[in-house]
């Protein structure tokens, strides 16, 4: 199995099914966890030296930090509704408690931070899905903690890709600290698939092919992208969802397309203009 792929595990005593740290991934910034909590169960943790984005994937929850609290947040019963999520931003040197009011799927996204911003609720009013691309490159993107919301390091978004389509495509990368040309961002992809017995493909490769991995990812799997290009393909009959978490030295997403495939962008523009 690829070292870049973290398959789903059985829930531990806290309901955790994914657990990726900078140490386990071999990088500096991104931490990522997923929990499946039964109604009435709670998750408590300190944010330590990290800013944290708690994404209510499905279900309804109450969330408390040291100074704030919110009840009855979350509306989705499926990740494929194309409905924007609720999320909570937690600064470093804080703590959070998430209580599942219904069965809950929760993502915990983290990166090192200094504490510039307070805890706050992110609602669907702060976010929205937008459709990008044409033809078999069409996908639906929702920025959760991106240009719509201030943070120190974290960038969080989700993408729904219809069956038979591609996303994160044409292949692009963001692994060099060369703004304004490109920025260096580590990235995780948390994959969900409908129907859930399906799979998607993701390739991660560098220009010199020091990394060149093509993976079949099943439901709840996570792909880690330390560097390189990283397109995703959804087979016929299966809709792809993924939650992206990015972080790096600067909180700016500037990507570089693979020169071999950049022609696709101009070809798509020509098609769209007709």
From TrEMBL:
Q: Which residues form the signal peptide?
A: none
Q: Which domain of life is it from?
A: Bacteria
Q: Name one GO biological process term.
A: inositol catabolic process
Q: Which key words are in the record?
A: Isomerase
A single GO molecular function, which one?
glucuronate isomerase activity
InterPro entries referenced in this protein's UniProt entry, alphabetically: Deoxy-glucuronate_isom_IolB, KduI/IolB_isomerase, RmlC-like_jellyroll, RmlC_Cupin_sf
Query: PANTHER family from the entry?
Result: 5-DEOXY-GLUCURONATE ISOMERASE
Could you tell me what this protein is called?
5-deoxy-glucuronate isomerase / myo-inositol catabolism protein IolB
From which source organism is this entry? Reinekea forsetii
Q: Which gene encodes it?
A: iolB
């Amino acid at each position: 199995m690829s070292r870049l792929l973290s398959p789903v595990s059985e829930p531990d005593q806290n309901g955790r099914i994914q657990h990726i740290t900078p140490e386990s991934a071999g990088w500096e910034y991104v931490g990522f966890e997923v929990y499946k909590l039964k109604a009435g169960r709670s998750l408590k943790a300190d944010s330590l030296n990290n800013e944290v984005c708690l994404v209510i994937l499905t279900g309804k929850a109450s969330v408390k930090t040291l100074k704030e609290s919110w009840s009855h947040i979350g509306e989705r019963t499926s990740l494929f509704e194309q409905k924007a999520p609720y999320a909570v931003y937690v600064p470093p040197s804080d703590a959070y408690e998430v209580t599942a009011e219904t069965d809950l799927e929760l993502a915990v996204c983290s990166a090192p931070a200094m504490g510039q911003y307070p805890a706050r609720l992110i609602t669907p009013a702060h976010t929205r899905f937008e459709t990008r691309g044409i033809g078999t490159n069409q996908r639906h993107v929702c920025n959760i903690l991106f240009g719509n919301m201030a943070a120190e390091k974290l960038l969080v978004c989700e993408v729904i890709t219809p069956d038979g389509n591609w996303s994160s495509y044409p292949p692009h990368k963001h692994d060099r600290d060369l703004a304004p040309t490109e920025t260096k961002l580590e990235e995780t992809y948390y994959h969900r698939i409908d129907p859930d017995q399906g799979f998607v493909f993701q390739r991660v490769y560098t220009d010199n092919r020091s990394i060149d991995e093509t993976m079949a990812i099943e439901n709840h799997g996570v792909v880690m992208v330390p560097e390189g290009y990283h397109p995703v393909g959804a087979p016929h009959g299966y809709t792809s969802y993924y939650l992206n978490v990015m972080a790096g030295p600067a909180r700016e997403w500037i990507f570089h397309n693979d020169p071999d495939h950049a022609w696709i962008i101009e070809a798509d523009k020509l098609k769209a203009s007709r």
